[in-house]
Design a protein that fits this description.
By secondary structure, the protein is mostly helical. The protein has helices spanning about 1-15, 20-35, 45-50, 55-65, 75-90, 100-120, 150-170, 175-180. It is built from eight helices and no strands. Bound molecules: zinc ion.
Length: about 180
């Protein structure tokens, strides 16, 4: 949900000059994938649990990536992922020529960045500056942060973001309509 919030806010701050329905759908899908992608390093993450051979594969990937909240939860990982994703999308482009891969890439990257921001609000923090071994969080005082997946804060976060997104979209109603008209 926070990935979508990021996409909405950035998308309206820098509205695309051209947008096709295919690009919009691909960008939103990429954005949601980006939103969960950093937790590929966590062998208990939902998408590992839903795959066959999941336990083994999840643990292997997790070990290669340095365990939970390591490389994929840092600026270094963000840059590397951005680079690899760009190459992958450029490779795909001849197959999907009508889709604006730059927008899809931005959707994916905004998804990852929003994941790192939201993880920063949890007690565990995020090692933003790897290879420097420090985990950063907000607020700086650890006991004020959320416990991942628990507590009133986590429970209120989803509906809170949903309300924000709907309100934000309503306030920018005309701008959104204009983008859709250009499709
Ligand atoms: Zn995470």
């Amino acid at each position: 949900m926070f990935a979508l919030t990021g996409l909405l806010v950035v998308g309206l701050a820098y509205p695309p000059a051209q947008l096709t329905l295919g690009t919009l759908v691909a960008t939103v899908v990429a954005n949601q994938m980006g939103g969960i992608a950093p937790d590929i390093d966590q062998s208990t993450a939902p998408f590992w649990r839903n795959l066959p051979l999941a336990g083994f594969l999840g643990k292997t990937v997790s070990r290669v990536l340095g365990g939970h909240r390591f490389l994929t939860h840092s600026i270094l990982g963000l840059v590397l992922t951005g680079f690899l994703t760009k190459m992958f999308l450029e490779f795909l482009h001849p197959i999907i020529p009508r889709i604006d891969i730059t927008l899809v890439w931005w959707g994916f990257m905004i998804g990852i960045l929003s994941h790192l921001i939201i993880d920063s609000f949890s007690k565990e923090g995020v090692p933003w500056l790897l290879p420097l071994p420090y985990k950063f969080g907000f607020p700086p005082i650890r006991s004020w942060r959320m416990t991942t997946g628990e507590g009133v804060e986590a429970f209120l976060l989803f509906p809170g973001l949903l309300i924000f997104n709907v309100t934000f979209a309503m306030l920018h109603y005309h701008q959104i309509i204009e983008i859709f008209h250009r499709m």
